[in-house]
Every structure is written in structure tokens, then in C-alpha cells.
Amino acid sequence: MKNSTLTFLGTGTSQGIPVPGSSHPVSLSDNKKDKRLRSSVLLEIGDTNIVIDCGPDFRYQMLRENVQHVDAIFLTHDHSDHVAGVDDIRPFYFKMDGDMPFYAQDIVIDSLKERYPYIFKEDKYPGAPAIEENIVVNEDFYFNKIKITPLFLEHGKLDVIAYRINDLVYITDTNNIPEKEFSKLENVDTLVINALRHKKHHSHFNLEESLEAVKHINPKKAYLTHISQYLGFHEEVEKTLPENVFLAYDGLKLEF
User: Fold this and answer.
1) Mind giving me the DSSP string for 16-66?
2) How far is CA 140 from CA 76, 101, 146, in A?
3) CA distance 30 to 58
4) Residues 6+ away with beta carbon under 8 Å from 46
5) Are strands 72-74 and 100-104 parallel, antiparallel or unpaired?
6) Is residue 54 a contact partner of residue 60, using CB atoms and an 8 Å limit?
7) Per-domain residue ranges for the chain?
């Protein structure tokens, strides 16, 4: 029996849905599946809790899902909608015996040091969290005996990391999967991949491109995330998708 669960903490783009001040029909929707916090997921693998990305909605996401401990934070890149909640790791850090492990590219760790200098000071305020720096390069690594395979993808001109754990792959904020990374995408059961909107975008897959990637990767099931109001109403869009492709929504839980 599977004992690993993925929870979608947020499935929205950088502004979330509803967008403040927007009169777009999707932002005005009463359907809870159309209400999207910034994109992030929780992976529960045995007794280990891993959060991928730590955006500005992190605190609320942890409260909503009643998360009692976080063992590590994996970051895809350093855009604000993926790292602006870093200070809110404090309650989980205070419950730990050591520093909170962060896994990210070296440029992302450097960015955190610029954004949150008080976290990295040697003589710092006692209430500040502490981060254990783990630099992700393009090779497999292990956390708590769990094998992690990073994939280096492109988000416009920025390198971003996707993560494969067992037969699950989590991809967000990309508009190109380099051919050399496709070998890591063989025999995927569950694929999570971004699909921003219908219109082409300079640094994100649109729906058409996302579905093309799904077809190429050929997972058993695919879930679309990092969705803007311009993709449309959840219920309407889902009816147009291939039978093995679904729109993710906040709070959705999958076993893998």
C-alpha cells in the first residue's frame, strides 16, 4: 500500500486567484476550486514532511492543512511567489533539534541571503530561524533516505529545478524542458506541471504547450498547476482536457 501523499497547498500563479482589484469572472467565481493560493506542495513520505516552495501564503497553507512539522524545504527558484514565506518557517524551526534544511541552487541561497540577511547572521536575533544550506546540482541526492532526482529546466532565461521523487514529478514555472532532461521523466506515474493560461507566455507553458509536454512524457496521470485567472473556470477547463489530465486545485491530495 502506498504511504506517500502529495497535497496541493496552492495552485495559483504569482498573484493568486482571486486577483486583488480584478473584475475578471474567474476572480469573482464562488467555486472554491477557482480560488488559488500561490503554488506549493506538501509531500508526506512516511514520517517525513517536505514542502516544495515557500511562498507568501505558506503560513495559511500550513494552518489549513494542520501541518505539525516540516522536515525540509525544497525550492524551485527564487521568485517571490516561491520564497516570500521563508520567515514563516519559524514555528517549525523552533520545534527542530537543528537548522531547517533548505535545498536549492546556489544562486537561490545567495538570493535568500540578500532578502533575509538576519537569518544568516552569526550573531543574530534569538527569534530568527536558522537555515541549513544544501546546494542542489544536477545529480541525485538523498534526504532521510528518500532519493530525489532534480531536473534543471528553463523559466525564460532563469534556471529552475523540478523534482522527481519515486514515480512523481513536480514541475512548475517552466517554458522549456531541455531534451537532456527527458531521460529523467521515463515511467512517470504522476506528473504535476504548470499551465498558466491559453495565450503564449515568455516564461511559462501555456495550456497547449503543457499538454504537448504531457503527451511527450506520457505519465499515467497529469495534474496542471500554477494557473492564472486567464485559463478559465476550473469546471469548464477540466471538461476539455484529455482523460488522464486534470486541473489541480488547492487542498487536492494524491497518493504516490
Assistant:
1) -BSPTT---TTTT---GGG-BPBPEEEEEETTEEEEE---TTHHHHHHHTT
2) 15, 17, 10
3) 23
4) 3, 4
5) parallel
6) no
7) 4-255
pTM for the full predicted model: 0.97
Region 167-182: what's the mean pLDDT?
A: 97
**DSSP 8-class letter at 81:** H
The C-alpha cell that represents 223 in the structure block:
495534474
Cis peptide bond N-terminal to 18, omega within 30: yes
CA distance 239 to 104: 36
CATH number belonging to domain 4-255: 3.60.15.10
Sign of CA dihedral 50, 55, 58, 59: positive
Nearest-5° Cα angle at 194, 193 to 195: 125
pLDDT for 2 equals 67
Distance CA 163, CA 51 (A): 12
Cβ-contact 17, 39 below 8 angstroms: no
The region of weakest confidence among 45-54, 103-112, 120-129 is: 120-129
